[in-house]
Amino acid sequence: MPAFVEKALRKSDLFADYRSRPEYQQNDYLGWINQAKKQETKEKRLQQMLEELEKGGVYMKMSHPASAKQ
User: Fold this and answer.
1) Dihedral class, residue 47 (left if φ above 0, else alpha if ψ from -120 to 50, else beta)
2) 3-state DSSP call for residue 69?
3) What whole-number distance in Å separates Cα of residue 60 and Cα of residue 56?
4) Phi-psi region of 29 (alpha: psi -120 to 50; beta: other; left: phi over 0)
5) What is the pLDDT of residues 11-52, one digit of tens each?
6) Integer distance in angstroms from the first to the last C-alpha of the chain?
7) Quick one: pLDDT at residue 35?
8) CA-CA distance, 62 to 34, in Å (whole number)?
9) Which whole-number Å values give the CA distances from 28 to 57, 70, in the listed order?
10) How far, rounded to the nearest angstrom, does the alpha carbon of residue 59 sit from its chain's CA centroid?
11) What is the pLDDT of residue 43?
């Protein structure tokens, strides 16, 4: 995990939410963020991941009921 991603997860108190997701989702998020060529795009993707983790019930803009928060 890139340091800037871990830092953002910890700062937003979403690290546990990230780790509670299935391994394939964790890998998808990291791969998707890292594949961006521009740092601006990486930051935008990171922000989307953080928003989805905070909201719960969403994965890559798709419904994911297993991660829904009560």
Assistant:
1) alpha
2) coil
3) 11
4) alpha
5) 999 999 999 999 999 999 999 999 999 999 999 999 999 999
6) 28
7) 96
8) 20
9) 16, 24
10) 8
11) 96
The tens digit of pLDDT for each residue in 40-50 reads 999 999 999 99
CA neighbor of 22 nearest in space, from 62, 51, 55, 64:
64
Supply 13's token pair: 């108190």
- What distance in Å separates the CA atoms of residue 55 and residue 9, rounded to the nearest whole number? 14
Instruction: Record the pTM.
Output: 0.91
Nearest to 20 by CA among 45, 60, 57, 61: 57
* Other residues' Cβ atoms within 10 Å of the Cβ of residue 8: 19
Determine the pLDDT at residue 32. Answer: 97
